[in-house]
């Protein structure tokens, strides 16, 4: 994913599901690694389990792309924790991806692809 800070958010779409999940977790608030993992697991009902090695690879990629950044924050429980936060460009990319997915789901509903009872 090339660095495109300040450019067109659409250039980064579609996002990989894990990238989108991390950005959503950080859109709520700044978080450290394990907190990101916990939030994604909560939001997915436990169906998404994330290995630390995978997490940090994606975080590094999102930093290079200008979607997130490390944040200075003193953590009284563990001063070694590194916090991450979403950038304004990252928020624009998340909004663009959400709009893209909403359009995809509109098509799914229009075509009545979901099992009975799951369509609007």
Morphology = globular
The amount of beta strand, in percent, is: 5-15%
Number of domains: 1
Alpha carbon gyration radius = 16 Å
Q: What structural class do the secondary elements suggest?
A: mainly alpha
| Arithmetic mean of pLDDT | 89
In CATH, the topology is named: Arc Repressor Mutant, subunit A
Number of strands: 3
The CATH architecture classification is Orthogonal Bundle
In which order are the strands of the major sheet placed? 1-3-2
What is the assigned CATH homologous superfamily? Winged helix-like DNA-binding domain superfamily/Winged helix DNA-binding domain
Major β-sheet annotation: 3 strands, antiparallel
- What is the highest CATH level, the class? Mainly Alpha
Instruction: Please estimate the helix content.
Output: 40-55%
Along the chain, the helix and strand elements come as HEHHEEH
- The end-to-end distance, rounded to whole angstroms, is 35 Å
Structure annotation, total helices: 4
Uncertain runs are none
What's the gist of this structure?
With 120 residues, the protein is mainly alpha-helical. The chain has helices at residues 17-28, 33-43, 52-64, 88-110, and strands spanning 31-32, 68-71, 83-86.
